[in-house]
Design brief:
With 328 residues, the protein is α/β, with parallel strands linked by helices. The protein folds into two domains: 143 residues, Vaccinia Virus protein VP39 (Rossmann fold); 174 residues, Vaccinia Virus protein VP39 (Rossmann fold, 3-Layer(aba) Sandwich), CATH 3.40.50. The chain contains nine helices and 18 strands. The strands form four sheets. The protein has a seven-stranded mixed beta sheet, sandwiched between helices. Helix 2 links the parallel strand 2 and strand 3.
């Protein structure tokens, strides 16, 4: 990714404090933080894979800014979701005593965000490079009207800005829930559980005694903890592609992601399938939903003895696989 942060430091627009902490919101694996002193940086990253990458490089990492936290400077790498970008920026200026650098790609809305901020303050001249911009504003600016409260969905659920399907129940998940059989077995996992809609439906099935909600987005998992208040539910902030259970599972249910940023990435779903096969008992079963164009049948046939399309429509397909080939 671009070196806009380094250029802003070199130009003097973003002054690094000699002491005190620097918050860095939502850096992804490819971001360049070399201009910042590692020992002063606290990374705020709710996505477990990115969180773990930065932690492995020696950075202090947390999934969310702690209550009462104060920083001498902050960097905000804006996400694609506009509501979340504004929320993060409002958080950053509220807890920062010095400069706040805002960095983002044009495709993620950095130009419209800069325009909105110019109506409220005087940002520094923007550094433009690699189809994006970086600029600074002062900490302490009042952007409290940009803070996003949890919102209600379908009366009984809450979601947060930026989580998958934040504005309503995902139609693919809804279709999968309607296709699930009356019995799923005793021990079940929802891989990529999101804010908990599918898990809530799983817990209505007879015989479920233990449900593992596995979700990489800490913000979504926090919503799930509110939405699924059942003692049988266990919550795991983890990458569903590599999460492991202490005991083998009877059933895995999932609506796996298939995008990395704006690009379609079927390998994500394929990795979910491979891990599901590893997690299941020899007699275990997988229920999943996917957009109809995604080529998951080959991966399913490689990982399971029996595979069938159990439902769907012109948009989605419900896939059922059983008896993982692991160890055969």
């Amino acid at each position: 990714m671009s070196q806009r942060l380094s250029l802003a430091v070199q130009s003097g627009d973003f002054a690094i404090p000699e002491t005190g902490r620097i918050a860095v919101f939502f850096p992804r694996e490819g971001h360049d933080l070399s201009a910042l002193p590692l020992g002063q940086v606290e990374i705020i990253q709710p996505m477990k894979p990115d969180h773990d990458v930065w932690a492995a490089r020696g950075y202090s990492c947390v999934p969310e800014a702690g209550t009462g936290a104060r920083f001498e400077a902050s960097v905000v790498f804006i996400p694609r979701a506009k509501r979340l970008a504004r929320h993060l920026l409002a958080q950053a200026v509220a807890i920062t005593d010095g400069p706040v650098l805002v960095d983002g790609a044009k495709t993620d809305g950095i130009d419209s965000l800069l325009k909105e901020l110019k109506a409220r303050t005087v940002p520094t001249a923007a550094v433009s490079k690699a189809h994006g911009k970086a600029f600074c504003i002062d900490g302490g600016l009042d952007l409290s009207d940009w803070l996003a409260e949890p919102q209600s969905v379908a009366a009984e659920f809450v979601t947060a800005p930026g989580v998958f399907s934040a504005d309503g129940i995902d139609p693919a998940s809804e279709q999968l829930a309607a296709s699930l059989p009356a019995k799923l077995g005793s021990t079940v996992a929802d891989l990529g559980a999101g804010w908990g809609y599918l898990s809530a439906q799983i817990l209505t099935r007879a015989g479920v005694s233990e449900l593992h909600l596995v979700e990489a987005d800490h913000d979504a998992l926090t919503c799930a903890q509110r939405n699924v208040g059942d003692p049988r539910a266990e919550f795991h902030w983890a990458d569903a592609r590599s999460w492991g259970s202490k005991a083998s599972l009877d059933t895995v249910v999932m609506n796996p992601p298939f995008h990395s940023g704006r690009a379609a990435e079927p390998a994500l779903g394929q990795a979910f399938i491979a891990n599901a096969a590893r997690l299941l008992k020899p007699s275990g079963q997988l229920w999943m939903v996917a957009n109809r164009h995604l080529p998951y049948e080959t991966s399913l046939a490689e990982a399971f003895v029996a595979v069938e399309e159990a439902g769907g429509d012109n948009r989605f397909k419900i896939l059922h696989a059983s008896r993982p080939r692991r160890g055969r």
